[in-house]
């Protein structure tokens, strides 16, 4: 028992050290010198206790690029929509845990080991930024296109395009799609968000498995 306790203690210390270093070591290490973009797109990072999403401002080109959402019944073309919100995560946990009261053991075990992944897509109107659960960033046109490319490439595709998960939604305004990649405790929803933000020209921590570490690194290095 003593050996087991010592081993678990070392694992815990190692995990805590990895999170700390992953937060305070920036990625990329050096900030590239960039001019202030002439045309800026204002993206938002939304977070809760365990998960982060990216909200993309909607314009005609964005609606056209993600036109398949409308075909699935997600009202991305509605006049009142200002953002399309994208998130990547573990299939079992995402689909089977719409609220904390519905938390089950099997989705949690899959999230801690390995699981297939899905993309969750939602829409939003005007979002008030004076909230502690979000942060906004301006990026230029080329970086905005690169971010859209990254998000688009996260959708798994079949012969007819992105694969909608049938009968899976939290409301009538959102939906789930099969995604590329596998989810586990090391490569999760927040590391996906961090990778997307780096594609957009922003700096994150080296490894950000938690929203709090990602948020702190974003404040430090951008």
TrEMBL record:
**InterPro entries recorded for this chain?**
CHP02117 (IPR011727)
Protein's name according to its UniProt entry: Uncharacterized protein (TIGR02117 family)
Q: Which organism is it from?
A: Rhizobium loti (Mesorhizobium loti)
Lineage: superkingdom:
Bacteria
């Amino acid at each position: 028992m003593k050996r087991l306790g010592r081993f678990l203690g070392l694992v815990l210390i190692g995990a805590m050290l990895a999170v700390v270093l992953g937060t305070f070591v920036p990625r990329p290490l050096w900030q590239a010198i960039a001019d202030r973009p002439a045309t800026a797109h204002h993206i938002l990072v939304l977070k809760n206790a365990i998960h982060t999403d990216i909200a993309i401002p909607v314009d005609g080109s964005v609606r056209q690029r993600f036109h398949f959402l409308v075909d699935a019944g997600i009202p991305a073309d509605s006049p009142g929509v200002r953002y399309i919100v994208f998130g990547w995560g573990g299939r079992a946990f995402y689909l089977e845990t719409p609220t904390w009261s519905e938390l089950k053991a099997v989705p949690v075990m899959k999230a801690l080991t390995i699981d297939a992944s899905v993309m969750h897509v939602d829409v939003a109107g005007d979002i008030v930024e004076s909230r502690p659960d979000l942060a906004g960033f301006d990026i230029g046109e080329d970086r905005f296109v690169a971010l859209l490319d990254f998000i688009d490439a996260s959708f798994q595709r079949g012969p007819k395009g992105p694969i909608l998960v049938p009968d899976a939604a939290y409301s009538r305004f959102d939906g789930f799609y099969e995604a590329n990649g596998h989810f586990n405790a090391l490569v999760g929803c927040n590391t996906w968000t961090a990778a997307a933000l780096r594609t957009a020209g922003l700096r994150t921590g080296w490894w950000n498995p938690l929203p709090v570490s990602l948020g702190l690194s974003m404040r430090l290095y951008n």
